[in-house]
Design brief:
Elements (H helix, E strand, L loop, with lengths): L2 H17 L4 H14 L12 H8 L3 H13 L3 E4 L3 E4 L23 E2 L10 H13 L2 H7 L9 H10 L12 E4 L1 H13 L5 E5 L4 H10 L2 E5 L1 E2 L2 E2 L1 H10 L4 E4 L13 H13 L3 E5 L21 E6 L11 E4 L2 H15 L4 H13 L1 H20 L8 E2 L6 E5 L6 H10 L2 E2 L1 E2 L13 E5 L7 H16 L3
Parallel strand pairs: 3-15, 5-6, 5-9, 9-10, 10-11
Antiparallel strand pairs: 1-2, 4-12, 7-8, 11-12, 13-14, 14-17, 16-17
Helix pairs in contact: 1-2, 2-4, 3-4, 7-13, 8-9, 8-12
């Protein structure tokens, strides 16, 4: 850090304290934000240490920490443990309120490796057949045009139970709530079972949709340390000792973004920690259905406190927006009330199509095709990653790739974007203010369906990473 930057920062902050509004830490954060916007603080520059600013301004280290924390929350700075706080580089600022992207906001020339989405297959053909059959059945159409029970019709709930069935897990239709996709299922779970101010623990790197929903509902998130199997039960237990925690959200199978899969002993250990600390368990199975050989869900080991969130979005069709919650019977009423409070009911039309596909085997066929195509595409590009350190699972649609030092994942993402390629960095998955690992998530699920485009995308990614070595 240069003396020039330190002097400039002190001057900016003194002006903010004298002329800003609100509590001290907010005035300081607003002053830094203004300095960044006006170009007085360069992107990527190291900001002065907390103690130096506190001494120069006659304030406390706590006030400076809160100001820096506010700036990190809105995506203007990034804190690196043991290294200090840096201004975020332009082009990689974290969006404040827009949340995660379900489709690319970028123009078509970009080849998007940043998102996991179902690879287009025969679903359009089957959808055409299903809609034509419904068009010839006026009685069915009349039935679909009215209101239904908020948890779904018995037939739809039975189809959901069948879809979530796995090994020794045989869900009951009475324990199913139909929702408009897994994301709405997550929203209804948090709305129905928690309240603003409650705390949920989750993996240090977690699904961005959870971060978005928690922010909207005023629910606090605490990130738990992870290892090669995912969430660490010892770290979870330690957090429960020091915080009042209401629930755990996690993805035990094909974790997003690390692609980790918990062993059965790990699932048993986590279930026991949750039982000892009276935590609800919210388990996301969106990607788990892609795993041809997967352990029993975490909810199997603590069924009395678990909500399993499943959907057809990653395996069959994202556009149908069909998902299912499986929960203990005492929680069904509260989950159903959350559905009623958000949309009255999941759409009967899409549930009708999804139920027929589950019943006649089309859903299973499309799932098999999805798994096969993911495997084919990964085999096509995996050789390009030779020499790089990465993690994946045979049925995961993405690679989790380490960025060699001293480079940052955000720098690689910017370089690739300049060449019309998009990837996801660890920052979009991070919970809390701890150090973010320098990794990139790259998916093979781009819908273009052009093998040459896919190869060029991964060649560009590999080239950007190997140039840094």
């Amino acid at each position: 850090m240069t003396v020039k930057v330190s002097i400039a920062m002190v001057s900016i902050l003194r002006d903010g304290l004298a002329n800003g509004v609100g509590v001290k830490y907010k005035r300081l954060a607003d002053a830094v934000e203004k300095g960044i916007a006006e170009g007085l603080i360069d992107p990527g520059s190291k900001l002065p240490p907390h103690r130096l600013l506190a001494d120069s301004l006659g304030g406390t280290i706590g006030t400076i920490s809160r100001a820096y924390g506010e700036l990190e929350r809105v995506g203007l700075v990034v804190a690196r443990v043991g290294d200090g706080t840096y201004g975020r580089q332009r082009g990689v600022e974290r969006p404040r309120d827009v949340g995660f992207r379900n489709v690319s906001d970028e123009p078509q020339p970009f080849f998007d490796m940043s998102r996991n989405q179902p690879i287009p297959g025969q679903e359009a053909h089957f959808l055409s057949q299903s809609l034509q059959a419904l068009a010839l059945d006026p009685q069915a159409l009349q039935h679909l045009g009215g209101y239904t029970a908020e948890a779904g019709l018995p037939r739809y709930r039975a189809a959901g139970a069948h879809w979530l069935r796995h090994g020794a897990v045989v869900p009951s239709a009475e324990q199913i709530v139909c929702v408009n996709g897994g994301q709405q299922g997550l929203l209804c779970t948090l709305m129905g079972l928690l309240k603003a101010g409650d705390t949920v623990v989750t993996e240090h790197l977690t699904y961005p949709g959870l971060i978005s929903v928690a922010r909207l509902l005023g629910i606090k998130l605490i990130g738990v340390a992870m290892d090669d199997e995912g969430l660490d039960p010892v770290a979870l237990k330690e957090i429960c000792r020091h915080h009042r925690v209401s629930a755990l959200y996690c993805t035990p199978t094909i974790q997003n973004p690390t692609a980790a899969v918990m062993s059965v002993p790990r699932r048993e250990a986590i279930a026991e920690v949750c039982r000892q600390n009276n935590l609800l368990i919210f388990e996301d199975e969106a990607h788990a259905v892609l795993a041809r050989q997967r352990p029993l869900p975490l909810s199997h080991f603590a069924p009395e406190r678990s909500v399993l969130i499943g959907s057809l979005s990653k395996a069959v069709s994202a556009g149908l927006r069909v998902g299912y919650l499986h929960a203990p019977q005492p929680l069904i009423g509260r989950l159903s009330a959350a559905v009623r409070g958000t949309c009255w009911m999941a759409s009967p039309l899409t549930l009708e199509v999804a139920s027929s596909w589950i019943e006649n085997g089309v859903a299973e066929l499309l799932l098999g095709q999805q798994i096969a195509e993911i495997s084919r595409r990964k085999a096509l590009v995996v050789g390009l990653l030779d020499g790089l350190v990465y993690k994946t699972h045979p049925d995961s649609p993405h690679f989790w790739i380490e960025v060699p030092e001293p480079w940052r994942a955000s720098q690689i993402a910017v370089e690739l974007k300049e060449n019309n390629y998009l990837v996801a960095t660890a920052e979009m998955f991070a919970v809390g203010h701890g150090a973010v690992p320098q990794f990139i998530r790259a998916s093979v699920c781009n819908s273009a369906g052009d093998d040459q485009l896919l190869l060029r995308g991964f060649e560009a990614l590999a080239g950007a990473l190997t140039e840094t070595v």
